[in-house]
Design goal:
heterodimer; A: alpha/beta; Rossmann fold; globular; B: alpha/beta; four-stranded mixed β-sheet; about 55% helix
Chain lengths: ~280, ~475
């Protein structure tokens, strides 16, 4: 069985562990052995995007060392994939890591991209009977050129009704530190996105990027919208006939384990924090 | 005194929350998008046209000296004057002095962003010269005493009703919101100006080197009237507008009009090569071309961002920009708005004061996607950010923050620890009802959003446990 390395973005590791588990589940179902190189931390994008290239560079070099022995690296984020594939060559130009970085860039994939282009899998026996709108996350769309890949996967999910919202290619307004430094612009863009999903009566907005979704989810909740967000890996990790809940464990593991795990991961819903509103 | 950055934040907050403003821009840009898509479909291969346009501009910009000198020689051969202005003051002074020397009382101006860049109109008015903006959009914003809102569509932020009210107040005797009648009213006012003006000032869309001519594109014919009726024609432009050959217009004219408005070709495309010759029935007695540098040759020396000089000022990147659509043109506080303005302004007016524009972007790349001459706009925003950090222009808090981030991320165990502490801190502050307070690690995030659910454990910890059990 072919082996792939999981590249779990740092904020997914810390704030959305379920997306990591779902990604592993989907890859296993597609027939891959999944490895999580535990030395990984962050790809360096926050520093790079804010202009701190000297702080990003050692992290990039480190990332290349951690992952270079793998034939394929898969990430549930188009943005972090972009960082490695598109920006490492520029960031590491003139360093000893440059050659490895360029090579590695060709072997790092966003999840939907990997499933379609490398694994050639569309049907993954998932079932998600809901109206879902796909938001074209900017890096996946414009840096990686992924437009049809995630849609193709979604179309093969049983019961899923894929709807197109207007301006699906418009940025949601996340943009890393932009989301806090220019929060009013970010929120305006997020609210446009939310309104567009509401217009087509989507139950869920899905996308390839957990960061965009975290932002959109926060905006949706703030405006008391009925729409929710869900990462594409969570949809693909569902199983036909087992209901709608995203799978949390692989089949081999027992139900008891599943229960305790569910508790362990159970997210604590925070109360609405309206603080700081002007 | 507030800095441009503070002013930007203040204005951005107001405009972002202004739903009516957003609606007006959205409507106008939707119309543009429809036309632009139709326009692109008229090309056999729009992407190939973009690449060709890029190649032409690349050739010109990378041989700027050669083509500019060639242009100058040709213009002078036909009796025109060429003035090389190192900066805005020199350009302004040349034109104001010329107007004074020729006893000019009235100037008709067609659209020129470079004139905005060098504050030409106030300088002329200061000398008692009446300046008429003859582009309809510019005419409207001039009546409102404000700068253009957009490079191509200066009055994009105004509804028909607002324009009607403005005309009623400023032009007198007009009380209608019928677009045709409004245009007719502007026409009456402008015709008088065209016939009385001693000097016409125009911008330039392309300086054609081999022909020694300026190419001028307008939709209203005002460029043609303003450059042929008055005694003196002054064409004002940045040095980057030069193109090698007349035949390049076969690509650049339709590319400009498609990207700018979606038209196949703009209504009036004019080539002006010099003053009226003996056998010509009309045209100006004097023809002056003012070539402005104003920081452009420094940009030329910057190999990384040289392609910014490819810009043909079509405005497509503004239309594609979600930030522009949210905050509008005036918020930028710059001559050139939108992505091209955010990239270019630090080079023209200093990185220190205008670096904030490079940060005021989600880096979505919509601008780069539409740019007809393929300027790497959103990546240049990253380059400007890097340059700002390199020049020590960022806050010490941010610098320390990223240093700490780097140290943490170099050690997986530190990341795990920091994550655990961070999640704990969030839960505790929120449990204590301190969400949004100064103690809340998420306070910047939760100004406009609800906080995400905070998991008890990280992925790496869950994964480790499972692997251990395997």
């Amino acid at each position: 069985m072919a082996r792939v390395a999981l590249f779990i973005p740092c904020f997914v590791d810390q704030l959305s562990p379920q997306i990591g588990l779902d990604t592993a589940e989907v890859l296993r179902r597609a027939g891959y052995e999944v490895d999580f190189p535990k030395a990984q931390t962050c790809c360096g994008q926050p520093a790079f995007n804010t202009g701190y290239w000297n702080d990003a560079r050692p992290l990039a070099a480190r990332f290349v060392r951690v992952f270079r022995s793998y034939e394929a690296v898969v990430s549930p984020s188009g943005s972090c994939t972009t960082m490695v594939r598109n920006f490492y060559p520029e960031l590491l130009a003139g360093t000893s890591s440059h050659g490895d970085a360029v090579d590695l860039g060709k072997r790092v994939f966003e999840l939907s991209e990997f499933l379609i282009k490398v694994a050639h899998r569309t049907g993954l026996s998932a079932e998600f009977p809901h109206r879902v709108a796909y938001h074209d996350a900017c890096h996946a769309l414009r840096e990686l050129g992924l437009k049809q890949e995630p849609r193709e996967l979604l179309r093969h999910v049983q019961g899923l009704h894929l709807v197109e919202m207007p301006y699906s290619e418009d940025c949601c307004g996340f943009g890393g530190t932009f989301a806090t430094k220019f929060h009013m612009i970010s929120a305006a863009m997020g609210n446009s996105k939310a309104a567009n999903a509401e217009k087509v009566s989507a139950e869920y907005i899905t996308s390839t990027d957990p960061s965009c979704l975290m932002h959109i989810e926060g905006i949706l909740r703030r405006r008391n919208s009925p729409v929710r967000t869900i990462h594409i890996s969570a949809i693909l990790a569902t199983r036909v006939g087992t209901g709608v809940a995203p799978s949390r464990l692989s089949e081999s593991e027992g139900a008891k384990r599943q229960e305790s795990d569910r508790e362990a991961i159970e997210s604590q819903e925070l109360t609405n924090a309206p603080g700081g509103q002007q | 005194m507030t800095t441009p950055a503070q002013e930007f934040l203040r204005s951005a907050a107001t405009k972002s929350a202004d739903l009516r403003h957003r609606q007006i821009l959205r409507h106008s840009i939707d119309t543009y998008n429809t036309s632009a898509a139709q326009g692109q479909a008229r090309f056999l291969d729009w992407q190939a046209a973009r690449r060709r346009a890029q190649a032409i501009k690349w050739e010109a910009v990378n041989h700027l000296d050669k083509y500019l000198l060639q242009f100058e020689v040709r213009v002078k051969e036909r009796g025109g004057h060429v003035f090389w202005a190192e900066n805005g003051e020199q350009a302004q002074k040349y034109i104001v002095d010329l107007a004074a020397a020729r006893n000019v009382r009235t100037v008709v101006k067609s659209k020129s962003m470079v004139a905005e860049e060098i504050d030409l109109t106030p300088a002329l008015e200061h000398k008692g010269i009446k300046v008429w903006e003859t582009d309809l959009g510019e005419f409207i914003v001039q009546l409102r005493d404000e700068p253009p809102y957009h490079i191509v569509t200066p009055a994009i932020h105004l509804s028909r009703k607002e324009i009607a009210a403005l005309f009623k107040e400023k032009l007198g005797g007009i009380d209608t919101d019928d677009p045709e009648k409004l245009v007719a009213a502007a026409r009456v006012a402008l015709r008088r100006a065209f016939f009385s003006a001693e000097m016409g000032i125009s911008g330039v869309n392309f300086l054609v080197a081999d022909a020694g001519m300026i190419a001028l594109t307008t939709n209203e014919g005002n460029g043609r009237l303003g450059t042929s009726l008055p005694r003196i024609h002054v064409a004002l432009t940045g040095i980057e507008k030069v193109i090698p050959r007349l035949e390049d217009l076969a690509v650049l004219w339709p590319v400009l009009s498609t990207a700018g408005t979606g038209q196949a070709v703009t209504c009036y495309n004019t080539l002006v090569g010099g003053p009226r010759t003996k056998d010509e029935p009309d045209g100006p007695e004097e023809f002056h071309v003012v070539l402005l540098d104003n920081g452009r040759s420094e940009l030329l020396a910057d190999a990384e961002q040289r392609d910014v000089l490819h810009c043909i000022r079509c405005g497509a990147c503004l239309n594609a920009c979600p930030v522009y659509r949210s905050v509008g043109g005036h918020t930028y506080g710059t001559t050139y708005q939108g992505p091209i303005g955010s990239v270019l302004t630090p080079h023209l007016r200093g990185l220190h004061e205008f670096q904030h524009l490079s940060y005021a972007s989600s880096l979505c790349g919509g601008c780069t996607e539409v740019c007809p001459v393929k300027i790497d706009l959103h990546h240049h925003l990253l380059h400007n950010r890097r340059n700002a950090v390199k020049a020590h222009q960022r806050s010490w808090k941010e610098r320390i923050g990223f240093r700490l981030y780097r140290w943490t991320m170099l050690h997986p165990s530190w990341l795990a620890l920091a994550g655990r502490l961070g999640r704990h801190a969030i839960r505790v502050t929120h449990a204590l009802g301190l969400g949004g307070s100064a103690l809340d690690p998420l306070r910047a995030w939760t100004k406009d959003r609800n906080p995400p659910p905070i998991p008890a454990r990280s992925f790496r910890s869950l994964w480790k446990e499972r692997r251990g059990a395997d």
